[in-house]
Structure formats: C-alpha cells, structure tokens
Amino acid sequence: METSWTSVAWELLLPAVRAPRRQRRRLLESALRDAIRAGHVAAGTRLPASRALADDLGVSRGLVTAVYDQLRAEGYVEGRPGAGTYAAPGLAVPAPPGGAPAGPTAAGAARVDFRPGQADPRLFPRAAWAGLYRQVLTGAPDRALSYGDPRGVPELRAALADLLARRRGVVTDPDRIVVCGGVAQAFSLVSRALAAAGHDTVAVEDPGPPELAMLARTNGLRPVPVDVGAHGPDLTGVPARAALVTPAHQFPTGIAYPPATRAALVRWASTVDGLLIEDDYDGDFRYDRAPVGALQGLGPDRVAYAGSVSKSLASGLRLGWLALPDRLTDPVVDLKRADDLCGPVLEQRTLAAFLTTGRYDAHLRRCQRTYRARRDVLVAAVRRYLPAARITGIAAGLHAVLVLPGGDEAALTAAAEAAGVRVLPLRHYGSGPSPGFVVGYAHLTPDTITNTVATLAVAWR
Amino acid sequence: METSWTSVAWELLLPAVRAPRRQRRRLLESALRDAIRAGHVAAGTRLPASRALADDLGVSRGLVTAVYDQLRAEGYVEGRPGAGTYAAPGLAVPAPPGGAPAGPTAAGAARVDFRPGQADPRLFPRAAWAGLYRQVLTGAPDRALSYGDPRGVPELRAALADLLARRRGVVTDPDRIVVCGGVAQAFSLVSRALAAAGHDTVAVEDPGPPELAMLARTNGLRPVPVDVGAHGPDLTGVPARAALVTPAHQFPTGIAYPPATRAALVRWASTVDGLLIEDDYDGDFRYDRAPVGALQGLGPDRVAYAGSVSKSLASGLRLGWLALPDRLTDPVVDLKRADDLCGPVLEQRTLAAFLTTGRYDAHLRRCQRTYRARRDVLVAAVRRYLPAARITGIAAGLHAVLVLPGGDEAALTAAAEAAGVRVLPLRHYGSGPSPGFVVGYAHLTPDTITNTVATLAVAWR
Description:
2 copies of one chain form a homodimer. By secondary structure, the first copy, chain A, is an alpha/beta fold. Chain A starts with a helix and ends with a helix.
C-alpha cells in the first residue's frame, strides 16, 4: 500500500510544509485528516514512519509525531509509534449502495478513449483565437510576415517571460526563451545541444512516456531509465549528466516530487556539472492546492524549463517554449536556426496577443474549473462502481492512475475494449503496479466519465 | 563574356529545344534574335561554338549551324564558322540620352534594401488568408486540433501532390509528401537522413546560399562546393553521393540548367547510388517562357524535391514541403516525428483550403504579373542609367545579377550604402564575376526600383 500513500499524500501534504512555520502543524493535520476522510488514503494504509515522513517533507520529526498523535486522538489513524501507524477504517465517504448501472456494453457502441494525453478540444476558444489571428494579420507590419527571430517573435518571448515568472516561479528573461514546435522540439534541440557538448546519455523517468526516450535516442542521447519510485528519481550514481524530469506532476504516476527530491535533483545537477530538463507538461492544472512552483526556480542555471500550450489550448498548434540557462541559450538558438530557421510567426503573435490581453489566464481558469469538476466526477464514479480500486495522481493534470486489486492486465484491457472503452495499462510507460491503468478523463464530459467507469465495472466484474 | 552568354541564353533557348522537332529551328532563331535585340546577349559577346551549343541543348549540330547562318544573314551575329560567332553591335535597344536624374543621395535618405531573398509582403492576401483561417478553425472537427500526422495534414498533402504535378511536373503522391517548416527544415531532415544512412558529404553549388552549407554542416554533412560554371555543376568525381541543386533558376546566378546538365545530374545520382536535393525555390516565377519543369520529374527515385510558400506567400508562415523517393520517405518521416512530432495543423489546413479553392493559382498569377513588370522596370532602368552594366538571371525569380564593367567591389558597396542603398556582392555567395551584385527587386515598387538604380548610377559614377 506504500504506493497508495505516496502517490496521493505528497500532493496533499506538500502545500502544508511550504506554509509559514507557525501554520504547518495545523495545515499538516488538516491535510492528512482530509486525505483519510476523502479516501485518498485508504483504510488500512500504513503511513510512513514519522522519521521518514519528516525527512521527506523536510520538517522536524517532532512535528510529524505531534500530527500523528493528534490524529490518533481523533481516531483518524491507529497504532502506536514504533508499531506502525495506519489509516483507520470506516472514515472514508462510503460507496453508495447498489451495483453499477447498465453501461454501453453492446458491441458497436460508441468507443470511448479513456487513454491519457488529451486536453478537451471543445474548450479551445476558436472564435477568440481566430479573431486575434485576424487582428494580428491585419495589424502586423509587412516585415512581420518575413522570417522571424530563431528564438521566436519578441512580443511572445516577453509575454512568456512574464507568464512563467508569475504562474510558475520561473526565473528567466525574454533573451533566454526559445519558442519551439511544442515540448517535443524543445527536447530535440536540448538533446542535440547536449550531444554536441559531449553528453552520451540522459536519465529518463521510469515509468515515463516512451516518446521522450525516442526523442532523446534519435537526437543523439541514450536514455537511461531511472525508477521514479515513491518520491521521484534518485540520480546518484546514474551514468548520465542530464535528466528529463516532470517534478510538478510526474507522468504517468501523477506524483509531485517532494521538496527533498527537488533539492536533491538540483544538487545532483550541480555536482555532476549537468542539466535537468524540466517538462512542466501540466503544471498549470493543479486542483486542490496552490501549484508547486517550477523546479527551474530552484536552479535556473541547472534547469532547462520546457512548457507548451498543448494541454492548455491545442496540441495541434505546436507552440512550446524553453527557458534556458545562459550557457545553453546560444547553442540551442543555433540548433533551432539550423533546424528550420525560425517558427511560424503569425500564430506566435496570436499567442502573444492572447497572453497580454489576459485571455490566457481566463482560459486557464476556465479549464481548471472544468477539469477539476471532471476529476471529482471520476473519483466519485470510481468509488461508486469500482470501490476496490485505488485512484491516484489526481491532484493535478488531465489523467489519473487506476490500480485494481487483482486480475490479468491483458484480460482487463481486452474486456474494456470489448465493452467499447479503450484503456492503457500503466506498464505501457515502464514499470508500475499491475493491473494499473492510466486514465485520461479531461477530454470527456462528466456523463461520459461516469458511464465509462460504470461500463468498466461491468466489463471487469 | 562567356558568363553573360550562358547566364541569359539557356533560359531563353531552352523552351525552343523542348518544342516539337519541326518548330525548333524557327523558335531557336527567334529566341536568339530576341536575346540579342533585347540586349540580353550584349554586343560583342562570343556565342558558343555550334558543336558545343548543340551538345548542351541536346540538338543536332546542323540545327545550330543553320540558326547561326540565318542570323548571320540577318545581321544579328558576325564572324564565320571556325573563327567564332559574335553578337553584332548596335542592335540592342539603345539607352536613352541624358544622364541619371538626381536620386535620393542625401545622407539620412530612406534606406532601400536592394538585396535578394524577399518576396513582396504587400502582396500577401491578408484578408483572404485570415478569412480561410477562421473558416478552417470554425469547421475543423475537434480531433483536428490535436497532434497531426508527422507528414502533415492529409488535405494539404493531397492538394500539394496535385499542385506540384500540375505546375512543376513533379511525380509524387500524398504519401511521399512531407510538410516541413520551410525548405530549411526540409534540408535539415534530408541531411540527417543521409547522415544516418552513411553519407559524410553533400555537394553544394558555388556560388550558392551560405545558409544551405550551414544547414548541411549542422545536420551531419560536410558541404563540398562545386562550381556552377556556365551550365550548372558537373558532379563527376566529386567526393559526395548527394547534392543540393537549384536547376530551375540557380541561386544566385539565375541560370537555368540546360537539359544536358539536368540529364547528367540524374545519371550521376543513379551511378553513385545517390540523391539530388532539388530546391525549387522560385520555380513558380518564370517570366518569358513556360516554366522549366522540376528536375524531379526526370528521376523521381533520385530526387528529393523541396519547395515552400516563402517566395509566393510569406516566409514567416514556415510552410514548405518535400516530395521524396520511396526509400527516403520513412526515414524522413521518422526524423520529422523525432524533431517536433508534427507541424502546426491550422495553417496547414488554411493552405490546403487556399490551394483547393483555386486562390493559390490566382495569387501566383498576380505575383507573376507584378514581378515581371518590376523585372522589366529593372532591366530598363539598368539599361538607361547603368548602360555599361550587364544584367543576367532575369528570366525568372525575384532577383537578378548586375555585373559592372569595373571598379572595386568593396568601394562600390560602400558608395551604395552611403547613398542609402544596401547592396550585396555576388561573391557573398562564393565565386562569381566581380564587381557583381545580386539585386533583389521583387519587393520594391517600380518607382523605387527606377530611383534606386538611378541613385546607384550617381553613387557609382
């Protein structure tokens, strides 16, 4: 049950320990209480030893002991120090009575894609975007239609520097930002720059997206998988001086790296004179607490920060960016120029206008509300129809991880498929608990989410 | 004077030799007569020996002898067989009397960029393009906003296959087309594919754009410059199995490769089991005769054809394409995927709509008319204000080559600059006659062209 604890708890507890010292105990108690009450920490889950939790959170052991004592007194946890601390049974919101309703199980039923990776294209603000595009095209000077700066149009880089500082705590300036064809091109360029600088390998998270390993490999770096474990990767001794990481919401497990891991990563990068490539792929969508800031803020000299509009607007726009350490900026700009001279200028200007007019912030708020509601529907549906399953990685992003109590993964996948639901096993991304599935819910309506979970419950019965 | 002959004459004579056999003599006579009368072949220029011209044009020596005889009879050429044939003096349209008018020579006068490479951004159909973009965005299915095919959106590839077959004689199909971020990305991808297949070098034209050499170098191939000479490069014995060529309108000399060179290039590629990369960078703008078809049509298996909208619409759109031989298609698609997954989908769809609704053809006709008129203004202005200069490479494209009878190139460049005109010496692109300048006229209005040439005449007096 360790996974259940860690996948959920870091996301819930971290904001508490980042609060001012005098509020920490109260917030930590409250967060742990909520997690148990909401079922995020299932009954019977063994909580970490107080010393281990204190180390991971970067707080004193006394604070954790006090919190455990208080919750034991309140009946949320059981056990004694030294003998283990467990979430008490009977506290989580009970599943509703009654089985799953009839779902769309008939052959030929409309397929539902329950795999991760998609934002909801229906949220893309088509009219506003087309209107801005027209304005940009009408108002742009003639020279703006010609080749642009290989780093991207200046207006966009200025707007991004502001956005990233404000929303993600990124420490940068417009001259160190390079606009790319999505995070994919950001990775290709950085990989090539590293290869040119003598790197042979890059550490990648396991589990993690196979696309990243493919991108690294084709661009001159051998990927070295490193276990994400419960607290993010430990890079000590790994045969690489660069690492691709997703600290805000690891893909696919959904964990957020604890502060100790974040600090250790930046220390590692300094020690080996290396680089972290931070994929902040859905740092914008954090539902229960304030977002964890970008890792880049901890070590702007050691982190190449990558982001895009693929999850917030549309992946088909292929608009992404890098915020680079000084020493990497010129090499990456040269590679960008040697790749395609520069990116398309009109949609870059449209995005700049979208940012500077405040539309992007408003759009993100709308997406955040919508996706959080869908996340809640998913959690409720799983609790109702698949009460034995654990659902984790739900504090942020567009997907969650569903771990079933047992069964053959291939058979479960086939049964889902036969019932009209396409699911993706967690092990598609490497190692992880089995049977486990990475569930993309953000592109589905609440009704579809509920019906799909109900359908799976029938198919998996 | 060999250069003067060859730069001009191939472009004027080629259509004649591609005509049905029974019309060739008449057309060849007429083309040569026009060239001399219009001053494209200056008085005193030595014409090639009949055997050499026959070989190069791929016609019988008897035909050339007959043409020379006829023109000698008419007084257009002088000399006797065996003793050389020369364009007769006094036939070209005479320069007008009087010196150059006062040009904008004062310091601080508005600068004119007389360098090559730009289309006229004022011709970009902003309203039509924005309207189509909106239509595309309004009508596209949700899934169209997501990642696309790495080869480009199918609608665009289908429309391009049709366009390229129709206008340029390219033999391809939508599955072998890859939409790229301009011709630059097309070159990067093909260069990387060649490097991965074991190529070390690529032949590049000398003179030629230094950007191409930079792209080759950064993407794993050492560029080997090959003299363009009078008839295009001879690749025999060159230490490379791939070559970047601009057969329709060599950049910067403006020559069109004669048929013998075209055939020899394709033969060479077969012999060395190699590849030609054809940059059809302004194959669409040919003013005096029907366009020469793409080289790719002669050897679809040996030519990677590259084109873009950079000269026809706007370079800032970064929309280009490759039509690839079968064996290269998968490797290039894999590299495109490993570079940026796919290109931006909305502007690809907009271009597809622009093509299929006939707007692109109409737009090209409009550009062609406009640029031809500007070309004529340039030629007239040069003849009037710089009568001793030769102007070549004028049968197509957006630039011409201006060769002066003498003077120091650096001093002439500085004098032009001081007079408010930025010019680019031909030798920027490698070897070539000196003092020579590559003149970009297509982005300038007729009045500006005339005034600029007049200004140069004063500055260079």
